[in-house]
Amino acid sequence: MCGIVGSWTPRPLDPQSRDRALGSIVHRGPDDEGRLVCGGVFLGIRRLAVIDLEGGRQPLFNETRSCAVVMNGEIYNYRELATSLKSAGHEFSSDSDTEVAVHLYEDHGEDMAKPLRGMFALAIWDRRRRRLLLARDRFGKKPLYYARTPDGGLVFASELKALRPLLESAGGRFELRPQAISDYLSLGSVPQPETVFEGVGMVPAGHVMTFDGQKLESRRYWSLDDFRATRRSTGRRIGYGEALERTRELVRESVKIRLRSDVPLGVFLSGGVDSSIIAHEASAVGDGNLQTFTIGVDDPRYDESDVARRTAQSLGLRHTVLPLQVTPCETLLELVRHYDQPFSDPSAIPSLAVSQLARQHVTVVLNGDGGDEIFAGYRRHLAAHLAGSLESLPRGWVHGLAGGVAAVLGRMAGRRRSRIGFAARWFRGLSLEPSARYLAWTADKLQEADKKAAWCGPPVRSTEEWLDRVRPAGLGALDTQAATDIRVNMLSGLLVKMDMATMAYSLEARSPLLDHRLAEFVVSLPAVHRLRGWRLKSLLRDGWRDRLSDEVIGGKKRGFEIPLESWLDGALREPLMDTVGSDSARVRNYLDGSLIDGLLEGGALSDRNRPTLLYSLLVLELWLREFESTAAMKESRQAA
Prior knowledge:
The chain is an alpha+beta fold. The chain is 44% helix and 14% strand. It contains 26 helices and 17 strands. A six-stranded antiparallel β-sheet has the order 2-3-1-9-8-10, with helices on one face. Strand 13 (265-268), helix 7 and strand 14 (291-296) form a beta-alpha-beta unit. Helix 9 crosses helix 26 and helix 13 runs antiparallel to helix 14 (419-430). It is globular and about 70 Å long.
C-alpha cells in the first residue's frame, strides 16, 4: 500500500512541487520514497512496505528498463502471475507484487489489468512507445485523481492534496464545482468519477487510461453488471445448496489469498456476520498468529465488543478490544482536513479512531466491507425486491396510494429506524420516480424539489438526472438497487471512507468479500437465492450457520455507528450553531437561509434523515472554510 504521484507535461515541473506532492502523502507510505524523472515525465511514490520489504522499492522496471511502474495497493495473485511470467521468459528483480504489473504490460499492453486480483491504482511509463498508462482496480478501492494542465499535460495523484501542488506548478488551479456541492447535499459525498473541483477527475473504477502526451483515452476493462443474473441468457440454474457450497469455497479462497503479507496482519471483527465469516476463514488457514480487533464504546446501543470477543474466543484467536474515545469536534476537524472533499458519512469518525488504534498492533487488516452490497444486506434491498413485485400495477395508482400511506405512517413513526419508520420510508420511496426513490431509500437528504425551492448557487442539473444515467437498465429490481449501490454509495462512500481512514495512519485494509471472482458468482445467482425466505444476506447466514454462533448468524444488522443525534444536541451543537447557524455561513451561498434555519430548529423536512442532513451541512461549512483558508495562505505566500 502506498501513495503515488506523477506528471507528463511539456516542460518539467518545479522540483519543489514534486517534493510538496510527495510530502503531503507520507502517511500513505512512511517507509520509503522513490522517483523517476525523465524530461517532462515524473513518477513518484511513498511506500508502505508490506510484501518483499527490501526488494520491492519502487519504481520497478522491466528487463530493459524501458518501462517503469509505481503502484498503490496489492495484487494478491502475484505469485501465480509471476510463475506464469517467468515461464514465458520474463526476468524478475524482486519478489514484489508490483513487478508483475510491468511485465504484464509488456505482454498485454492496455489489457494488463485483466489478470490482476487485488486493489490497485498504478501508473506505467513506457519510454519506448512514449505512453503513460493509468489503471484502477475493478471496484475502485484505491483512488487515483488526475487533471489536464493548461499546457496540455497531465498530472495525477492518490490524493487531491498531492495533486494540487503538481497542477499549480503547471499553471492550473483548484476551483470549486457547484454541481458537486449540489450532489453532495443529496448523496452525502461527491460522486465519482467527478470531484469537487472543476476539471479534476478520477480514473473510473475498472478502467485503464492512456496518455500519449496530447490525447487522453479511457477504456473499461470490467463491469460487474455483465455477470448479473438478469443479463445472463444462458447457463445452468444452480440450486441453493450448490450455491452455498460454491460461496463457501470462493470466500475461503478469497480470504486465504489476502493473508499474503510480510508484516503483521489482523482482522477488524465486529459482532456482525460479514467480519465474523472473515475471521472464521482466516483462522482456518492462518498461521496461528492472527489478531482480531474490535472497538469498545460506552453506549450499549452501539457496542458489539462482547459478541466479537466471544466469536474470537470460539475461533481461538488473539483478541484486542480497542477503547474508542472520540472527541467529536477535534476528530471532525481532522476528518475535514484529511478527506480533501466534503464527506458526510458519520462513521468516518470512528473509522479514523479505530485505524489509529489498530496501527499500533498491525500493518494490515482484513475487513467485511462489501458484504452488504454484494450479498444483499440492506433493508432497501428487501424494499426494492418487494417493489419489483408491484411493477405490473398502474404506476399512477401505486404512487398515489403509497404517498397517502407514507403520510399516515410518518405521523405514527417514532424512531426513524423502527419498523414503522422503515415502512413509512418504503411507501414514500414507492410514491417517487426511480432515481428519487433511490435517494429516499439511501441518504434521504435533499431531493430535486427541495433544491428548486432553496438552491442559491449557480445553475446545476438535478442529482436525480445524474442517477438516471448511472442506474443500469435491463436488470431486475434487486439487481438495479444493488448495482446502483455499488456505483454510488459504495464507490464514493464506503470505499473512500475506508481508504482515507486507514491510510491516514499507514494501515492497509483488505476486503475479501469484494473479490471480483466471488462477486461475479454471487450476482449471477437469482434474487431468490440472495434473499431466500426474504432474509438479508441469506447466502452468508445459511452458508456459515453451522460454523458461527446463533447470536452472530441471527443478529440484527448494525452499521459502524456513532450517537450522532446525541452529538448534535451536545458536543457538536455549539460548533453547528456558530458555523452553519451564522448569517455569514458559506453554505448559505448555496442554500436559502430559511431552509437551513428550519433544519436547525427542527421544523423543516421532518420526514428526512435530519441528523445526517445537519451533519452534512456542518461538514460542508467546515470544508468550505478550510478551502478558503488554504487559498488565502497560498495567495499570502505568493505575495510575499
